[in-house]
Automatic annotation (TrEMBL):
GO terms for biological process: tricarboxylic acid cycle. It is an enzyme of class 1 (oxidoreductase). It comes from Paraburkholderia largidicola. Residues 518-534 have a biased composition (Basic and acidic residues). GO terms for cellular component: cytosol; oxoglutarate dehydrogenase complex. Belongs to the alpha-ketoglutarate dehydrogenase family. This is oxoglutarate dehydrogenase (succinyl-transferring). E1 component of the 2-oxoglutarate dehydrogenase (OGDH) complex which catalyzes the decarboxylation of 2-oxoglutarate, the first step in the conversion of 2-oxoglutarate to succinyl-CoA and CO(2). The keyword Transmembrane does not apply. InterPro entries: 2-oxogl_dehyd_N (IPR032106), 2oxoglutarate_DH_E1 (IPR011603), DH_E1 (IPR001017), KGD_C_sf (IPR042179), ODO-1/KGD_C (IPR031717), THDP-binding (IPR029061), Transketolase-like_Pyr-bd (IPR005475).
Length: 941
């Protein structure tokens, strides 16, 4: 029974055991306690934690402590039991109010510079929602779990503090973070500072200088180059303040290099005012003076640059990655560059900061954003956290209605997938931009996690400068027309604060324009250290690894490596199937049986690693191999934990070997291939490979292939030696597992931009991979890798083939002079169809047919093929035979080449499946019938 004696009320501290007993009873069955107790406990259960700790159950100790605290207040204030219960409920309400501001306070924040859309009311942010009245504003409540200063004593003080912290020009979303330490970090940092940065007058003047430069460049270009596209940053000039602070403040946290990726909006401004591209170089591009520098070149707002930005801790390296018009496709490339750069510096991932700058419509609309974010915390692709900057100009591309561009409340909601906190900031408040930037850098430095900053701004012009946006957005652009610009607004603020005068403001404008005029008149000389971007980019390259020239290793070295990579410690219990693979490889190493594809590939890697060259391989099943042929990582079947239970033979080649990395990738082709491309741009002394699970899965990365691998060097002078391994071959498994779309790569080939090969023996892949790793002027290598040939009894090689051979662009037969005179038909082919033709020729017993395998399709080995054809004096027919349909595969590419090689009286013809819409039949029987038809035509007829 609850006592009515004030001195021994139900909340008296000495009654703590009784309180806990009541709480236990409530948890077991709420109906067994009194209505008063039940109401209080119900209210307490509904309140989210405000101290940064979440549990599945409501702990007893905080409940009891709360009652004890209230009991003390009861004794001193002389309150009745009902008063105390009412006060307790209000205390719970106060905690709920704090939690609500932390969770959804940003929805009432002042984020829109245009203020052209009505705010959405949020009832949870009103005290009345919790039955807190105006009379309660002067009441003191417990602020347990909050981080405000001592000036916050009453509910009124608390409401003011919450609004300043969460509903100003900076709004934060972080309560969805699963880690209570991270949530507590954010609430503490935001509430202790009221979401404001500490800035002195020097800081403020620097902000004005950056805004002046951002606006000044746009106005100068607009006046000087009338009508030319530049994708202006006007309306979002605070981006320059943000990026400047990212680099400068990041340097104080150990960031040595920042890798930026962005689309075209504002790119020219970032190039000049952040990365350090000389204005004179930009003007030359506007005037067409640099068109001769590259085979193709690219528009100025796609180009990249690397420069040094001066900071208080010394110069910081900043790189803006090249990017085509495919907006967000640069994201994984940035991640790959950042990871590789961190490895080169050897200072850990935190020393390199990836910065991805998104558009508001693109960040929520393009799948590559999600695919790249999904790399963030993975072992093979993590970069220690990325700063994502969303430049939200509120109009996307052509629409201003969010219902047409996304289904989420914020365009940044995709970031919640990886639990990245989001900071929404008004672009008209550059000081809030600074605060958001510092918070983002500090959080990344503390937790190695990504952060998103949404810069809410506007776009003064249309999509490009010839556009007329008010045709479709009249209300928005009416508001924009009356907006003076953030530089003007901030200058007025500093004048009002008497930090500088109006004359000083004009001097900032005049000085920057004078600098541009000087550059325009060519009186500004380029610094000796600065070159054009095509020449400047390679400063990223790692020149520390010793190069080796391509030479076949000696037999004793091959045998030594083979034995090393097949020696497995006794404590590892392998799966029986894997055990047989390893045992077979040991026989290969001892010369007891010929080498298969998997062993030759391992030997290529081992020989490179022994020479100090790093090897990185990734793909969706690359550790084991999609067709269970690789087994680069061996799993102990009796392991006690996953971390302890793996053994990688290629980690044990030699004491001073290169680094071998093999990763089972996330289920994304575009993001992973983009990452590996970016990685290879930096690590040009490493062999970097990406493997498709099936060759046609690379279709999902076509944008990366078209814009980076194929054209990167022609457009930007950016070199990559990335290797693509694409399983390819018609084997009756259906259309999606038959073709790597060889024809697409051949269509992209020109100007020696890449190498496309289809090797058919283990020795060929061994020499090919070694050659790719050590050539000085490498290009992307596209390898059509086999499936059935992985275990074909005739697709084998010897240790001597590895030790003494080389990669051959063609593999031809060597008949005697007499035998050659009987040859009247030569069949040219590529890939596994050779072995099918070979078997059919044996069965037919014909000796008038010669077979030539074209192992390299581009650059096309015309000279070698021509020389081989000259060996047959009675040649009448040259056939190109392929297993792919006529409109696919190699025929349309090789036909033109062969017409120049085949000399009369010999004729050229095609034998293979007719043109089809699909890559292959979906039924095994149809595949076999089709195969029988072209084998019969090639050999029997």
């Amino acid at each position: 029974m609850i006592t009515r004696n004030r001195k021994t009320s139900f909340l008296f501290g000495g009654n703590a055991p009784y309180v806990e007993e009541q709480y236990e009873t409530y948890l077991a069955d709420p109906t067994t306690v009194s209505e008063d107790w039940r109401s209080y406990f119900d209210a307490l259960q509904d309140v989210p934690a405000v101290d940064g700790s979440d549990t599945d159950d409501v702990a007893h100790a905080p409940v009891v402590s709360r009652f004890v605290e209230l009991a003390k207040q009861t004794r001193t204030a002389g309150r009745s039991e009902n008063d105390v219960l009412s006060f307790a409920r209000k205390q719970v309400a106060v905690q709920a109010l704090i939690s609500a501001y932390r969770m959804v306070g940003t929805r009432n924040a002042h984020l829109d510079p245009l203020r052209w859309t009505a705010p959405v009311p949020v009832p949870e942010l009103n005290s009345s929602y919790y039955d807190l009245s105006h009379a309660d504003m002067n009441t003191q409540f417990s602020m347990s779990g909050a981080h405000f200063s001592e000036q916050v004593e009453t509910l009124g003080d608390l409401m003011q503090a919450l609004k300043e912290t969460y509903c100003g020009t900076l709004g934060a979303e972080f309560m969805y973070l699963a880690d209570p330490e991270q949530r507590n970090w954010w609430s503490m940092r935001l509430e202790s500072s009221r979401s404001k940065a500490t800035l002195d007058n020097g800081d403020k003047l620097h902000i004005l200088e950056r805004l002046t430069a951002a606006e000044g460049l746009e106005k100068y270009l607009h006046a000087r180059y009338v009508g030319q596209k530049r994708f202006s940053l006007e309306g979002g000039e605070s981006l320059i303040v943000l990026l400047d602070e990212l680099v400068a403040y990041g340097a104080t946290k150990g960031v040595k290099s920042s890798i930026l990726g962005m689309a075209h909006r504002g790119r020219l401004n970032v190039l000049v005012n952040i990365v350090g591209k000389p204005p004179a170089a930009l003007f030359d591009e506007f005037e067409g003076k640099t068109a001769h520098l590259l085979p193709a070149g690219d528009v100025k707002y796609h180009k990249g640059f690397t420069g040094l930005l001066p900071t208080a801790t010394g110069p910081a390296e900043v790189t803006l990655a090249f990017n085509p018009s495919h907006l967000e496709v640069v994201n994984p490339v940035v991640q790959g560059i950042a990871r590789a750069r961190a490895e080169v510096l050897g200072l850990g991932a935190s020393a390199v900061l990836p910065v991805e700058i998104h558009g508001d419509a693109a960040v929520s609309g393009q799948g590559i954003v999600m695919e790249t974010m999904n790399l963030a915390n993975t072992r093979g692709y993590g970069t220690g956290g990325t700063i994502h900057v969303v430049v939200n100009n509120q109009v996307g591309f052509t629409t201003s209605d969010p219902r047409d561009v996304r289904s989420s409340f914020y365009c940044t909601d995709i970031a919640k997938m990886i639990e990245a906190p989001v900071l929404h900031v008004n672009g008209d408040d550059p000081e809030a931009v600074i605060a958001a930037t510092r918070l983002a850098i500090d959080f990344r430095a503390t937790f190695n996690k990504s952060v998103v900053i949404e810069l809410v701004c506007f776009r003064r012009h249309g999509h490009q400068e010839q556009d007329t946006p008010n045709i479709t957005q009249p209300m928005m652009y009416r508001s924009i027309a009356g907006h003076p610009g953030v530089r003007t607004l901030y200058a007025r603020k500093l004048v009002d604060q008497q930090i500088l005068t109006a004359e000083d403001v004009e001097k900032y404008v005049h000085d920057y324009r004078e600098r541009l005029d000087t550059a325009q008149s060519a009186e500004e000389k380029k610094p000796a250290a600065q070159k054009n971007e095509e020449e400047n980019w390679p400063q990223l390259l790692d020149g520390n690894v010793s190069r080796i020239y391509y030479a076949p290793p000696l037999l004793d070295l091959v045998q030594k490596l083979a034995l090393k990579i097949t020696r497995i410690p006794d404590q590892y219990s392998l799966h029986p199937l894997v055990g047989r693979v390893v045992s077979a490889r040991r026989d290969m190493a001892e010369g007891k049986r010929p080498l298969d594809w998997g062993m030759a590939e391992h030997m290529a890697f081992a020989s490179l690693l022994s020479a100090g060259i790093d090897v990185r391989l990734s793909g969706q099943d690359s550790e084991r191999g999609t067709f269970s042929h690789r087994h680069a990582v061996l799993h102990d079947q009796n392991r006690s934990s996953r971390a302890e239970g793996t053994y990688v033979p290629l980690h044990h080649v030699s004491d001073d070997q290169g680094r071998f990395s093999v990763t089972n990738s996330v289920l994304s082709e575009a993001a992973v291939l983009g990452f590996e491309y970016g990685y290879s741009v930096v690590r040009q002394n490493s062999l970097v490979l990406w493997e498709a699970q099936f060759g046609d899965f690379a279709n999902g990365a076509q944008v990366v292939i078209d814009n980076f691998l194929s054209a990167g060097e022609a457009k930007w002078g950016q070199r990559s030696g990335v290797t693509m391994l694409l399983p390819h071959g018609q084997e009756g498994e259906g259309p999606e597992h038959a073709s790597a779309r060889l024809e697409r790569y051949l269509q992209l080939c020109a100007q020696d931009n890449m190498r496309v090969v289809q090797p058919t023996t283990p020795a060929q892949i061994f020499h090919l991979l070694r050659m790719q790793a050590v050539l000085r002027d490498r290009v992307p290598l596209i390898v059509m890798t086999p499936k059935s040939l992985l275990r074909h009894p005739e697709a084998v090689s010897s240790l001597e083939d590895l030790a003494k051979g080389r990669f051959n662009e063609i593999l031809a037969e060597s008949p005697t002079e007499e035998a050659a005179s009987r040859i009247d038909r030569v069949i040219l082919c590529s890939g596994k169809v050779y072995y099918e033709l070979l078997e059919r020729r044996r069965q037919s017993g014909k000796d008038n047919i010669a077979l030539i395998r074209v192992e390299q399709l581009y650059p096309f080995p015309a000279k070698q093929i021509g020389s081989e054809l000259e060996r047959y004096p009675n040649l009448k027919s040259v056939v190109w035979c392929q297993e792919e349909s006529k409109n696919q595969g190699s025929w349309n590419f090789v036909m033109e080449q062969l017409l120049e090689i085949v000399k009369a009286p010999a004729t050229l013809r095609y034998i293979g499946p007719e043109a089809t819409a699909s890559t292959a039949p979906g039924y095994k029987s149809m595949h076999l019938a089709r195969q029988e038809k072209y084998l019969h035509a090639a050999i029997d007829e």
